[in-house]
Amino acid sequence: MIPLNPVGRQEIHKLESILLYSTLFRKEVLDLIKDPSERLTWVDSLAVASGAIAREKAGMRVSEIAEELGRTEQTIRKHLKGESKAGQLVRETYDLIKQGKLDEAQIDLNIMLEENTKLRSENKKLKNLLKEIYNKIGEIIK
User: Fold this and answer.
1) Based on the domain organization, do 80 and 138 belong to the same domain?
2) Which of 39, 47, 114, 131 has the most CB atoms in a 10 Å sphere around its CB?
């Protein structure tokens, strides 16, 4: 079960992780992070927004959230109020979860599909590398 109003650190971290992963795998977000030069900034902003919203739902004050996440209170407020794009996206994800339009099964499936894609890509690269090694060995033996 997804803790929409977390109590304790474990539930805060669970909600934070679910918000981050669920937001990252939304099609519009995947489109936004296609540019490698922007990707790190986006992921960082989404992580901070996810952490801020999870802690807000647990009843933490802005100053506590800022201190815990290592960001300014102004930054945290922007995420919480939806004044940042990351804050808007994470808030939308929270609302989707709350409305039952996104559940843990869908989230887990998205994570597994993404991991599967990464593993297939890595497997293909390793097969090509192995083929190159066999070819070089064949050249050396001749």
Assistant:
1) no
2) 47
Same domain, 22 and 47: yes
**Number of folded domains in the chain?**
2
Range of the domain at 129: 103-142
Q: What are the E-state strand segments in 6-140?
A: none
User: Are 48 and 5 in the same domain?
Assistant: yes
User: pLDDT of 8-57, one tens digit each?
Assistant: 999 999 899 889 988 988 888 888 888 888 888 899 999 999 999 999 99
Please tell me the distance from the alpha carbon of residue 79 to that of residue 89, in angstroms, as a whole number. 10
Please tell me the distance from the alpha carbon of residue 44 to that of residue 61, in angstroms, as a whole number. Answer: 21
Q: What tokens appear for 54 in the block?
A: 């999870």
pTM for the model: 0.71
Q: Are 11 and 58 in contact (CB under 8 A)?
A: yes
